[in-house]
Every structure is written in structure tokens, then in C-alpha cells.
Specification:
Blueprint: H1 3-12, E1 31-32, E2 36-39, E3 42-48, H2 63-69, E4 82-85, E5 89-95, E6 102-104, E7 117-120, E8 122-123, E9 132-133, E10 139-142, E11 146-151, E12 157-160, E13 190-196, E14 199-205, H3 210-220, E15 234-237, H4 244-256, E16 263-266, H5 289-298, E17 302-307, H6 318-321, E18 325-330, E19 333-336, H7 341-354, E20 362-365, H8 388-409, E21 416-418, E22 430-432, H9 439-448, H10 466-477, E23 482-484, H11 500-512, H12 514-527, E24 532-534, H13 560-565, E25 571-573, E26 577-579, E27 588-592, E28 597-600, E29 606-609, E30 612-616, E31 624-627, E32 631-634, E33 648-654, E34 660-667, E35 679-689, E36 692-701, E37 708-715
Parallel strand pairs: 8-9, 15-16, 15-23, 16-17, 17-20, 20-21, 21-22, 33-37
Antiparallel strand pairs: 1-4, 2-3, 3-14, 4-5, 5-13, 6-10, 7-12, 10-11, 11-14, 12-13, 18-19, 24-25, 25-26, 26-31, 27-30, 28-29, 28-31, 32-33, 34-35, 35-36
The chain binds beta-D-galactopyranose (GAL).
Length: about 725
């Protein structure tokens, strides 16, 4: 519109003939989004300019797996999908139905349902503010069976079914004084969202269920990570002031206490200076890094190094990285711009020479989430030209991609830790952790990570009682990474002697379950199925109303039934185990069961079918339940996974009365050769015969000679 017309409107309040002015307050004035299918069941649209986004740091889509998953319908009315570039923000509007529930929106510590909330997705050290999270993944999943991703480096604001445009479908108006059911947050018929700037890319993932939509999202981001075998073992972290000798003593202590140990984490003090970091070994505490790593390798123990990204002037990579750092420092260290290939190369050269070539197995990347008062300001400038807020939003993701590329270049898998992430991270070998320590919040995060394409560890640091110590060990033993991070207090697994045996037992139970868990991770890698899943990703829990237990009898709260199902203190591990961790002081645990018969993991006894059951907790047992027909391969407990060798005998458990199958996956557990077919899948089958159940091993497919040996079948439910 030219200035003449604008002044006419201002002065006379009129639009000159021939210039019908679009009312920018109406939905119809927004552009209708044009979608292109980019993979089966995946659609993309661009609003405004193409911009830098998280997916630049994801692995390429797993096209064959997406094709195998098959086609899906576009999930909503295309005519109702709108978007526009406004005066300062690019925004979108996608329709939702009244019955839909929304999940996801990154790694959240509270609840499952996201509908009726506003999220300002910003990477931050968890501060309890909605949307401030270690992983502000702008991906949401609908109970109607689709997912939406905003691919951006910016901080999006998402109105998840809240805020009512004047020409949208509005709920009936109720007078608050005389009427009933006035709503402070009237139901809205759309998800609206925006980012600052002139462009936004949106992806829609179709599906016949929320799980299928999540699978498509993960596969589009390269599939899920397959950790090395050792990554699923026990991880222990050393005090920051430890020397090489202290570490060796600690390894001996683990042997003395007959306690599993696969990975030792070194905290900041392995370096010559930390906060900011040199990334160089401290010559006093670690005079001979190669000799030290070799000794640990002989014991089958891997080393993980703590780092934060900020570079100390004494670092041997300081001069090389300096040209590629931003305008501001963090703790007086320089901040590399890892969006630049040159900066990545400097980091890779240094880390290869000083760490990977010596045998370091992975990293714990700290402080990439940060607090505003610690990290660089939003107006910081970086040599790539990206602004400070964008670099921060993607920093943890960029580092994950960089390190993955590095480990891939030497054909070794890694499995480490990171405190900040974003979309597109599913194939990266990193697990998120936090300084936040609420046990229930930890378990909620574990469930929600399945709807963000990330992994989370409810690591243990401390406890006020032996009961809490044991309860926390039980949860972390049933999580993506079994880590004790109690280096600061010096607390050891055996520090609460009254429960040492029970702690050892649950750690051993995890070790025994590794054939099952590793196969669940293979499903993550190949099919995008998260190994740890929120209940809302299970059939019958996804709002489709197929759960028989519990009627919609609460007229006051029409959502009572769906809320009952949106449990975040229980979750699925692999295809058939339901984990319901007990918390300190919890004597009875309410567990909501999906449809079908369910059995107690320990006894094989029937516990229920759908509905809510109340189980009496036992201190030494984490409540675990198995689906009818569930098959669980277990191996002997070992203290170190490197000692396993081949011909590992398997006890294969079957629960319930139904026939079932389990795809037992195996490979070398160390390299990426599985991507070239170097793996094996053996089908374990239970059939119903006239005289009862019978188990057999089906054929093995794949080029890899599986490490598993003789199978003993155990029918848990007689
Ligand atoms: C914290 C981190 C801890 C520990 C510590 C080392 O920020 O969350 O896990 O690594 O730094 O100083």
C-alpha cells in the first residue's frame, strides 16, 4: 500500500474505490499454506523466507524405513491451514478438533497434556517456567495421530489450542455472574504459533496413532540412536579433583563391592583448567593419559570426559579457534561458533588427537542450556552472522552433531550426555540430564522425552534416606542411561549399606535385561519407536477411547477419563514391559493398565486387564508388568559388558496365555557396521499348541554372527 492511500485512510477513514483493503484481523486474509509431500506421510510448507533451523543438524531422513511405514493421510483440512509474515513475526495457524489432546513441546517435567497452554520454547537450565527447558523441541503430537514440527533456530511461541481469533469457531459465551461453566481459557479451534523474523518452515507427520506420528518424526530425523553395548551398562562419575591413581582405586573398589561398572566419567578437573575449559589433560593429575586409558580399557572400563564449550586462553586449541568465536565470553572463555565448518574442524582435530585417538568413548557436554546471567546475551554477534539467541537455541544440538560426525569418522559409536538439545536429535548418541532433582519430575521427563525425539536420564546424586536411594536407583535402572552422578558428595552405590544388596540387584536386573533393551533400541533406530514411551503413545491411551476400564462418569469434568490415561509416573520400556516406579513413602501404587491381560514381571501372576489397579509396593522391587504374550530375553548378570564373549546363554521368559514373537537384535555393539547390514535378528516365538505353550527360535537373518547361545524358555504364567 502506498503512502497516499495510507494517508487517505488515516484522514478520511475511507478506502478509495478500487482498493478493497484486506482486513488483516481476519483468518481469510492469511495465506493458505501450500504443502508438498517430502516423504511418505510427511509434508512440508514454507512461510516467508527459508531460514536456518534445527534440522540442519539432524541426520538425513531414513527414507527406506519411512517408505516401509507406508503412506498416511494429510491429517487436517488444508484450506484451514494458514500462515503469514507479519510486521515482526512469522506466524501459522493449524486447525484442531474439540476432542484432540496435544502432547510433546520438548522435554517437560510436568504432566503430559499441552492443550490450553502457551509455550515460549527457549533453551534454558530448567527453571520451572513453561517452555524453558533443556530441550525446547517445537514438536507436538496430537491424540488424533499426527505430529507438527517447527523447524527453526528461533524461540517459538506456541499457543496450543488457546487464544481465540474473532472469526474462528468460538465456544458459547457464558455470563460469569449468572451462568455455569465460564472459561478463563475458552477452547480454541487451532494451534497458533510464531517466531520472530521473516520465515518459518513447518512439517506435518501423519499417522494412524500418536506413536506412528512420532515414528515418522524420528525417522525423518535419521531414526533413533543405537548406543554401543557398553553405553547401556553402569556409568559412574569421579570427583573433579581425582587423579589417574584415584580413578584406578575407584575401579578396584567397584570390584571389591562386586558392583557393575562400564563407564567412568571424569568431571571438570581432568583438564589443566576448567570453567572455561582447556580440553587438555592436566599434567599433574593425568601425567600419562594414554597409559591411564589403556589400563582402564584392560578392565573393560570406558572413559567419558566432562566439558563445557567455552575455551580457556591456555587451551592448545585457543589460537586456532579464536577467529571463529563470538563477541562475548562465558566465564571469560571464548565461545566457538560451531555453525561454521572451520570451527568444527578445529574442535575435531583437537579432540581426535587428544582424546579419541587415545580411546576416550564419549563426552558429557555441560552448560549448553545455561542461565541468561551465565551465557552470552541475545545481542552477541558471531562470525557466521547468526544472532546470539539462535546460536544458543541450537548450541547443544550443534555440538551433538559435531561429535557424532567425529565418532563416525573413526567408525566408533558414542553414548554421552548433554544438557541442551533441540529438534532433530534422535539419532545422536546423547542423553539429557539436569541439576533439577525432583524424583517424580524426573520420571515425568522420562515419559515426555519420547515425544521430543530425545533421551533423558533420571541420574542419581543423593538421597535423604536409604529408601530414597534405592527408589532412585530403581528408576534410573529403567531409563536410557544408568548413571550415578554423586561425585560431589562422594556417595557410592554402597553408601547406604542397608540397601546395598537391593541396589546391586536392580542394577543386575538391568544388565540381565540388556538383550531386550538393546533390541528395543534397534526398534528406535530402524523404526523410530522410542525405547521408553509415554503411556499416551500406547493404544487405548491415545484418546481413541478403546480402553474399557473406567467410564466417562464424571459429568463435571468431561476430560476425567482421558486425564486418567495421561499418566506420567509410569511408562513403557520396549515392546511389552510397563514400568511404574515407586517413590519414597509410596506404599500403594496406582497403575493404569492398557487393554488386554497384564502380568507381574516377578511372579508371572495375572494383575488386571485395562482399568486402574492398586499394587502394594515392596521396597526391593520396582513395580514391573508384562503384556500378555510378552517375550523377554534375559542374559546372565555381569559386572562388565566387555567380559561377555560369545555363546551368551539366554533365559527367554514368556508371560500370559497368548502366543507372541520377539525380534532379538544383535551386532558388534561398537561400530556403525550395522548400517551396512552387519547385524542379526533372530525371531523368538511362542506358539499355543494343544498341550500348552511352546517356544522356539525362528531363523536368524542378517550378516552378523549373533553372540547369543543356548536358549532356555521360561513360561512365567502357568
Ligand atoms: C554441573 C553439571 C553437573 C556436574 C558439574 C561439574 O553444571 O550439571 O552434572 O557435571 O556441573 O562442575
Amino acid at each position: 500500500m502506498n503512502n497516499f492511500i495510507r494517508s487517505l485512510i488515516l484522514v478520511f477513514g475511507m478506502v478509495p474505490a478500487g482498493h478493497a483493503l484486506a482486513d488483516s484481523t481476519l483468518i481469510s486474509s492469511m495465506e493458505t499454506l501450500q504443502w508438498e509431500m517430502v516423504a511418505p506421510g510427511v509434508w512440508r510448507t514454507q512461510i516467508g523466507d527459508e531460514q536456518w533451523g534445527a534440522l540442519d543438524f539432524a541426520s538425513p531422513p531414513r527414507e527406506s524405513a519411512l517408505t516401509e511405514l507406508g503412506p498416511a493421510e494429510f491429517p487436517f483440512d488444508k484450506a484451514r491451514c494458514r500462515g503469514d509474515v507479519g510486521p515482526s513475526r512469522t506466524h501459522f495457524r493449524l486447525p484442531i478438533e474439540d476432542t484432540e489432546r496435544l502432547y510433546g513441546m520438548g522435554l517437560e517435567f510436568r504432566g503430559a497434556n499441552r492443550r490450553g497452554q502457551v509455550y515460549h520454547l527457549k533453551v534454558d537450565h530448567y527453571g520451572g517456567v513453561k517452555g524453558y527447558t533443556h530441550a525446547p523441541v517445537p514438536f507436538y503430537v496430537s491424540s488424533a495421530g499426527y505430529g507438527v514440527l517447527l523447524n527453526t533456530a528461533r524461540r517459538p511461541t506456541i499457543h496450543a489450542g488457546i487464544s481465540n481469533r474473532k472469526d474462528s469457531k468460538l465456544p458459547p459465551r457464558v455470563d460469569r455472574t449468572t451462568g455455569k461453566g465460564w472459561q478463563a481459557r475458552p477452547t480454541s479451534d487451532a494451534v497458533e504459533g510464531s517466531v520472530y523474523g521473516t520465515g518459518l518452515e513447518l512439517f506435518v507427520f501423519g499417522g494412524s496413532s500418536p506413536l506412528e506420528a512420532v515414528q515418522r518424526y524420528n525417522l525423518f530425523c535419521g531414526g533413533g540412536v543405537l548406543p554401543p553395548h557398553w553405553g547401556l551398562g553402569f556409568v559412574h562419575r569421579m570427583h573433579t579433583k581425582s587423579s589417574d591413581q584415584d580413578v584406578l582405586k575407584e575401579v578396584a573398589e567397584f570390584e571389591k563391592y562386586d558392583f557393575p561398572l562400564d563407564v567412568l566419567g571424569l568431571e571438570p578437573g581432568w583438564q589443566s583448567a576448567a570453567y572455561p575449559c582447556t580440553f587438555d589433560w592436566d599434567p599433574g593429575r593425568f601425567p600419562d593419559p594414554q597409559g591411564f586409558l589403556d589400563k582402564l580399557a584392560k578392565n573393560g572400563v570406558r572413559v567419558n570426559l566432562w566439558e563445557n564449550p567455552f575455551v580457556h586462553p591456555d587451551s592448545t586449541m585457543y589460537e586456532a579457534i579464536r577467529p571463529y568465536t563470538g563477541s562475548h565470553t562465558v566465564w571469560l572463555g571464548e565461545v566457538p561458533d560451531y555453525s561454521l565448518p572451520e570451527a568444527r574442524q578445529v574442535m575435531m582435530n583437537h579432540h581426535n588427537k587428544n582424546h579419541l585417538d587415545l580411546g576416550v568413548s564419549g563426552y558429557k557436554f555441560d552448560e549448553v542450556d545455561g542461565f541468561d546471567v551465565w551465557l552470552w546475551p541475545d545481542h552477541a554477534t558471531f562470525p557466521s552472522g547468526h544472532d546470539g539467541a539462535q546460536i544458543r537455541q541450537l548450541y547443544g544440538l550443534m555440538l551433538q552433531k559435531l561429535l557424532m560426525d567425529q565418532f563416525r569418522s573413526v567408525n566408533k559409536r558414542t553414548y554421552g550426555l548433554v544438557r541442551g538439545s533441540n529438534a532433530g536429535a534422535s539419532s545422536h548418541g546423547f542423553v539429557i540430564y539436569s541439576d533439577y532433582y525432583d524424583h517424580k519430575g524426573y520420571v515425568t521427563a522420562l515419559t515426555n522425552c519420547s515425544m521430543a525425539g530425545v533421551l533423558w536420564t533420571p541420574e542419581i546424586r543423593s538421597a535423604r534416606s536409604s529408601e530414597e536411594w534405592l527408589r532412585r536407583f530403581q528408576s534410573v535402572a529403567f531409563s536410557p542411561m544408568l548413571q550415578l552422578n554423586a561425585w560431589a558428595s562422594g556417595t557410592k552405590p554402597w553408601s547406604f549399606p542397608e540397601v546395598t544388596d537391593q541396589v546391586r540387584e536392580v542394577v543386575q536386573l538391568r544388565m540381565r535385561l540388556l538383550p531386550y533393551l538393546y533390541s528395543a533400541f534397534a526398534d528406535y533406530q530402524q523404526q523410530g519407536i522410542p525405547p521408553f514411551r509415554a503411556m499416551v503413545l500406547e493404544a487405548g491411551f491415545d484418546g481413541s477411547g478403546t480402553t474399557t476400564g473406567g467410564e466417562l462418569d464424571d459429568v463435571e469434568n468431561p476430560y476425567a477419563e482421558i486425564q486418567r490415561l495421561e499418566k506420567t509416573d509410569q511408562y513403557m520400556m520396549g515392546p511389552s514391559i510397563l514400568v511404574a516406579p515407586a517413590f519414597t513413602g509410596e506404599r500403594n501404587k496406582e497403575v493404569v493398565l492398557p487393554n488386554g491381560d497384564w502380568y507381574d514381571f516377578y511372579t508371572g501372576k495375572f494383575v488386571g486387564n485395562g482399568g486402574t489397579i492398586s499394587v502394594e509396593t515392596q521396597l526391593d522391587r520396582i513395580p514391573l508388568f508384562v503384556k500378555d504374550g510378552g517375550i523377554i530375553p534375559m542374559m546372565p548378570a555381569v559386572n562388565n559388558l566387555a567380559t561377555l564373549g560369545t555363546k551368551i546363554p539366554l533365559e527367554v521368559r514368556h508371560y500370559g496365555k497368548q502366543a507372541g514373537t520377539f525380534s532379538l537384535y544383535d551386532d558388534d555393539g561398537e561400530t556403525f557396521d550395522y548400517e551396512n547390514g552387519e547385524f542379526s535378528v533372530t525371531e523368538l516365538r511362542v506358539q499355543k499348541l494343544a498341550n500348552g505353550l511352546s517356544g522356539e527360535q525362528g531363523p536368524t537373518i542378517g550378516d552378523w554372527q549373533s553372540r547369543y547361545g543356548a536358549v532356555t524358555w521360561k513360561f512365567m504364567t502357568e
